[in-house]
Amino acid sequence: MKVEIETKKLYYGFPVILVGYKDSKWNYNVTTSSSSYTLGDTITMALSSASNAVKNIEQYKEFTVNVPRQSILNKVEICGFYSGQNKIGMADITYDIGKYVDAPLLDECMLSIECTVHSIIDHNGYTNFIGTIKRRLVCESLIDAESKLIGTEFNPIYFLGDDNQRIYRYFNEESNISGENMGCSSNESICG
Ligand SMILES: Cc1cc2nc3c(=O)[nH]c(=O)nc-3n(C[C@H](O)[C@H](O)[C@H](O)COP(=O)(O)O)c2cc1C
After folding, report:
1. 65 CB under 6 A from ligand 1?
2. InterPro entries attached here (predicted)?
3. What residues does 169 pair with on adjacent strands?
C-alpha cells in the first residue's frame, strides 16, 4: 500500500552531473546538477534561474555535461554549494576546452558531452535548457576494442531524496541487457 507524503521535492534517482560553462567573471566555471536527460542528439538540463550558471549559459548559449564518479564526491559538493564562486579553482579542477563549444570538459569525469542551447524554458523558478549534443567523449577504460561503451563498468553517482534528506547512491554489480527480460519473473514485491 502507498501513502501520500508531504514534501516540496521528491527526487527518485538522477545521475549527478557537473555542468561546465563559460563564465564572464571567472573565465570558466562548473555547477553541480542532477537534472538532465538525453534522447538521441537532444539533451535537457535544468538549474535554478537564480544561479550563476543560468546567467552565463543564457549569455553564451553553450555548456558541457560531465559525469563524475564517487571518487570525486568532494568536488561535486564544492561545485554544488558555493554559488557564484570560482569553483574550478576551489575544487582544483583541470579541464580542456571543447572542440565545438567554448566550455570546459572536466578531466576527472568519465563522460563528457558538448552541448549548444537550442531553447530555454523558465518554469517556477527553474530554467530548462533544451540543447543539441555536438560531441560525446568517454573515458578509454569504459570503451571496448570496437569503441562501444562497456555499460557494466559505468558507475555514476545517483542523487535522491525528499525535503527531509537527500543522499547519494551507487550501482551494485548486477545488470541485465535491455530487451531480454520479458520472460523473466520475480516473487519480490515491495509496493504495487
Ligand atoms: C548533488 C547536487 C545536485 C544538485 N542538483 C541541482 C539541480 O538539479 N538543479 C539546481 O538548480 N541546483 C542543483 N544543485 C545545487 C547547485 O549546485 C547550487 O545551488 C550551486 O551553488 C549553484 O551554483 P552557481 O550559482 O554558481 O551556478 C545541486 C547540488 C548538489 C550538491
Report:
1. no
2. Flavin_Rdtase-like_dom, Flavoredoxin, Split_barrel_FMN-bd
3. 158
**60-74: pLDDT as tens digits:** 999 999 999 999 999
From the CA of 48, give the closest atom in ligand 1. 11
Domain residue limits, the chain: 11-169
Instruction: Write the pLDDT tens digit of every residue in 169-191.
Output: 999 999 999 999 998 887 676 77
For 39, residues 6+ apart whose C-beta sits below 8 A from its C-beta are: none
Residue 41: predicted pLDDT: 98
**Domain 11-169: homologous superfamily in CATH:** Electron Transport, Fmn-binding Protein; Chain A (2.30.110.10)
Dist. CA 31 → ligand 1 center (Å): 6
What is the full DSSP assignment across 41-106? TEEEEEEETTSHHHHHHHHH-EEEEEE--GGGHHHHHHHHH-TTS-HHHHTT--EEE-SSSSSEEE
pLDDT of residue 192: 63
CB 37 within 8 A of CB 80: no
Q: Residue of the nearest CA to atom 31 in ligand 1?
A: 80
Q: In the predicted model, is pLDDT for residue 144 greater than 90?
A: yes
